[in-house]
Amino acid sequence: MSAPSKQPMLIPAMLTMKCPSCRKSTVFVNEGIFPLGNMLELKDECEICGQRMKSESNNGGGINYALSMVLFFLNLLWYWPIFGLSYKDNSVFYYLGASTFVVILAQPWLMRFSRMIYLYLYVSFGTSRRVTIED
Ligand SMILES: [Zn+2]
Predict the structure, then answer these.
(1) Which of 19, 58, 85, 115 is the most buried (most CB within 10 A)?
(2) How many A from CA of 50 to the centre of ligand 1?
């Protein structure tokens, strides 16, 4: 039999910044993004399963760039219906400004989420040394 029923779902675990191996403990030292100075600080290892979090030094810089670009264009989805876009006036530039503003505001979450994606790419469920699935 494969796929143990106690395995927490992948996407919710990623969105709530849970450990990629046991999906129970949080990955970051701080639950929220404040204080901003150490919002990206990872735990040394998971306190539940012992999965190492700091094995990679360059966590998610490229992924963060890609996510920023995706969000930048996703802003079209709300900007276009609300304010409208036209090549006849300056609305394209207003959109670029508004979208840049939103992307900058979302940076703390984008940066953390990029690290999560990076961790989940390299660590799959149940691969840590001390993992116990049948609890
Ligand atoms: Zn864990």
Answers:
(1) 19
(2) 6
Q: How many domains does the chain have?
A: 1
Percentage of the chain with pLDDT > 70?
87
What whole-number distance in Å separates Cα of residue 16 and Cα of residue 28? 10
Separation of alpha carbons 23 and 11, rounded Å: 10
- Give a yes or no: residue 27 inside a domain: yes
- Residue 3 covered by a domain: no
Domain assignment present for 131: no
Which range marks the domain in which residue 99 is found? 10-122
Structure-block tokens of residue 38: 């150490």
The pLDDT mean for the chain works out to: 85
Distance of CA 132 from the midpoint of ligand 1 (Å): 10
